[in-house]
Design goal:
Number of strands: 0
Distance between the termini: 59 Å
Oligomer: single chain
Largest sheet: none
């Protein structure tokens, strides 16, 4: 029953997302493309902080060339920018002596 609800929710969300369109005024062929999107994604944290205090600074270029700018922006944030940093590293000792403790008396 739970899997059916999850599947129905995913299908409804997918149908809703399929209706989304981008305004034709927001897409221009000579506007920023993939590389500028990559750069904007990489500098996103700084641009976001600046945009809080400076109204002329934006975190996203409009108009842009559409999907390629978006893809570069996504890669800039996730791969090269904020999402690329690890929050912590987990080390797991898999050797046979992992339970042995050494005590000094």
């Amino acid at each position: 029953m739970r899997a059916g609800r999850l599947l129905a929710a995913c299908a409804a969300l997918g149908a809703l997302c399929a209706c989304a369109t981008q305004s034709a005024a927001a897409v221009a062929p000579a506007a920023p493309g993939f590389l500028i999107g990559l750069w904007h994604g990489f500098i996103f944290p700084i641009a976001w902080l600046l945009s809080l205090f400076m109204p002329e600074v934006a975190v996203y270029a409009v108009p842009n060339d559409g999907g390629w700018y978006d893809f570069g922006y996504f890669l800039g944030i996730v791969v090269f920018g904020v999402g690329a940093r690890k929050s912590h590293t987990v080390y797991r000792d898999r050797g046979p002596n992992r339970a042995r403790r050494f005590y000094t008396e």
